[in-house]
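Data availability excerpt. The first of two example chains:
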Amino acid sequence: MKMTLSRLRYKASLNKLGYEELPNGNVIDTNEKLFDFWFGYYKQSLSQSVSSNAFDYLKDKVTIIARHDDRFVTAMNDQNYTITLPSPNANTYNVTLINPDYELNGYDTIVLSLVGGSSDTTNNSSTTNTSNND
């Protein structure tokens, strides 16, 4: 993929879930920023999207490109890592899929999934079986 630094126009942050104990003994989740990075949005054609993914899979997903960093690969395997994007997508995402480029000055293609989004949950619809046993 041909990339230039000029495509990396947006700034995001990689975070890791942490914990903080309050004075009353309660423990709350915190989102500790590890580092900021520059990224660009990656757009797939409709045929690429359909051939590689189902439409439900694409819901609440964002694909970005960023300079290679091994911490993105680590984030894919650990749900405690999140990425926060700037406005208008000022949401928190988990790394769902990554295509790392280990070359010198390589760019990673990263698929992000919205934390708590509809694609993260599965529908467990229960069926009700009614029968008359007289």
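And the second chain:
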Amino acid sequence: MKKWIVGLGIALAILAFAMWQRKDEPVDFSADVKPILNKHCITCHGGVKKNSGFSLLFEEEAFAAAESGNPAIIPGDAEHSEFIRRLTSDDPEERMPYDAPPLSKQEIKVLTRWVEQGAKWGTHWAYSLPKEVEVPRRRLATASWFNFWDSNPMHSDIDYFIKEKHEEHQLEFAPEADRATLLRRVSLDLIGLPPTPQQVEAFVNDTRKDAYERLVDSLLASPRFGERWASWWLDIARYADTKGYEKDNSRQIWAYRDWVIKAFNRDMPFNTFTIEQLAGDLLPNASKDQLIATAFHRNTMVNDEGGTEDEEFRVAAVIDRVNTTYQAWMATTFECVQCHSHTYDPIKFEEYYKSMAFFNNTRDEDTPGDYPTLRFYNKEDSLQVVRIKEWVGKYAEPEAVASTDLFLYTLEPKIHAHACDQLVNGALVDTKWLGIRNGGSARLPDITLGDNDLFYVNYRTGASGGKLEMRADGHQGQVLARVDLPATKGMQTIAIPITALGGKRDVYLKFNNPSIPADQPVCLVEWMAFREALPGHDDPEYPQVQQTFLELINKSTPAVPILVENPQHMRRQTQVFERGNWLVKGQTVEPAVPQFLHDFPKDAPRNRLGFAQWLVSEENPLTARTLVNRLWAQLFGHGIVEPLGDMGSQSDPPTHPELLDWLALQFMHEMDWSVKRLLRELVLSTTYRQSSALAPGGAEKDPGNKYYARGPRFRLSAEQVRDQALAVTGLLSAKMYGPSVMPYQPEGVWMSVYSGESWTKSAGEDQYRRGVYTFIKRTSPYPSAVTFDASSREVCLVDRIRTNTPLQALTTLNDPVYQEAALHLARHMEAAGKGKISAAIQSGYQSVMQRPLPQDKFAALEKLFRESLGHYRQRPQEAAKLLGASATGAAQANATTAAYTMVASALLNLDEFLTKS
């Protein structure tokens, strides 16, 4: 009785407080005003257009004088503000929005109140982050006085935020899912694979209070964890095994994929994960692993087609890096600012190119060799590299050792053939190689010679007798070198001693070989480099060391594309592209970050490393929010904010804004950017553990499960669909890392031009490896994966859209991968059944779904078996065809196996098998 009295008193107090409050509450610019402006006004008065000189995109523009000479908005005076007058005018030529339906009375009322209250220009919710967020325990306790029947325990602070929304929408938590269902769900979520029947049995019978926590910890520690989460990240990283565009040739970049898997398994803090991928090469004494990490931004496409302009596609790659970085880490539609200021968010046109300046000084230049690459030496050659570095360290400063190491492992900095100009009697052959005919020449402009006394040239020629002459400052300038060009077997690098002149000069290259036909080039040059010779000239062992150095340079090694920054003397200027056209250069800009976000760290360098540090600064309101929102969506099917790619003013408001902020702050501070700790917090929550069964009235109150009054239920990812089928049938390989593999795909899918590359089915266990290792050709990605909405990886993708098409059922019913899996499962069923149909079918269901088979489903599957058995007994040739090489020769045995195969195929196509529920 006392509780009811207290509850009534609280209710009366709340009512009194509401009546006391002013009706004219302050208008929230971000929540109330900005959505109206974006919907009705910005298209004519924003980033693209500024009709009548009036813009509502930036604060300073909104209150500035328009073309009339007067400001349209007078803060505090709605009556004399032209902005309000135009919204309420009866004259169709004056009333705004022009030639469109008028604003509603409520919308006009909101804007009028906003102007009357001083037209305060607020900040969008996503662009600032509170210092702390209170978990609503006390508020919830007060609001729940009358909910004595609610017995769901709160396993995480997350649940208090969710419960508070339940109270608002008259919802409540669903009961916890049964143990078998919960185990399958969390296993698929954390490692991407279902549990085995033995694991299910152990968990179901584990009576310890912390059994679920122990289970979660074991999954987080599994090496399969990294493979599951790498699949997610590689969509964002637009990772593929080919370069894209027309030729779409293969590239060896799988070492980056392996780096991602290992990083997730080590639980590399997300801020470190960020810095190493964006700027690992700029870290002090960068390790080879940190260099591999930078392949994140070498996943951009490269156009190898003959006749293309390398600079055009280098610029395209840089633009892709800018767009991908802002999208991947901050869910910002920064790509909208390439041609004009953002239409809806406060990002200025020039700020795009200031950000681009951070990325514009990498050594890659859209060359067929995919340079720069990190070369992988074998054990013997690696020892030679160590000896050379020890030699240099003996005679020179540490900087020389670092330079030697960089050149041996990356061949950088080098100069590509396309840098030559003023070509005489020659051309850039296929836009790749410098090909100068007898007596012809080319210029290398603005070369910083400094103390360099060696010229390395990588070339090929089948003719002997060729000569190269180098001069400085002109065709008749000082001779730097004259040297013979021996015939080669393929591409070869030679070292040419030159006169060290110092300074920055034009270098002229003259080629001669009168013995070859007049229309043939003397040689084909791919790249060149000016370097200082190794120190220690007076040591008797010097010639051998120099020879070993050259031999290492000429080694053909596996390699992975990486980022390497230009040295100071090769730095590029970054200019604004007028209207986004890379050929029309505007003002020069320096590296800087957008003003609407937090300041650039004071002590950070103005390069990619400083930019990466800015991204993961604890002052950044977007990076942690973005990551938390996307991990939440991976587990629950949708984000707290939708869409996942936009936290700007055009996104839907967050369903649980305080929860999003609390998780972001926890992730940065309490969890130290640990992805595993964040995922652990999410999957331990009551919110996550709920049954996904739809309660009566649940569909009407919350059809999209936005407020999480039931557990998640949605289809598995493309990789998980295939991996699960292989796993439950015993086919899945546990092999990790290494080159990408080619499982079965139909003939004729690949249409490779020029290269003659083809899809060659992998042998042995490689054809049964996890989907994360499947070879991805951008112009022709793995068909069954694409059917289940996997990406072609041409651009960054942060959210796969789940579709439901007949092609998906046709794939899982007819693709030989799934047919083989069904046959494999059928043989297991036969063995387990020992002649008993019911035992065999129950065994198959137990293997697939990790729980006992319900009677109604058994009846349907038994009927399918008996009908199939009768069919194949009458048509033994069809049974033999289905079984293929597995056919035993005995028609009766084949018919039985074929019938079980049909049942197994049905099991692998169950909705409950293809969904996480």
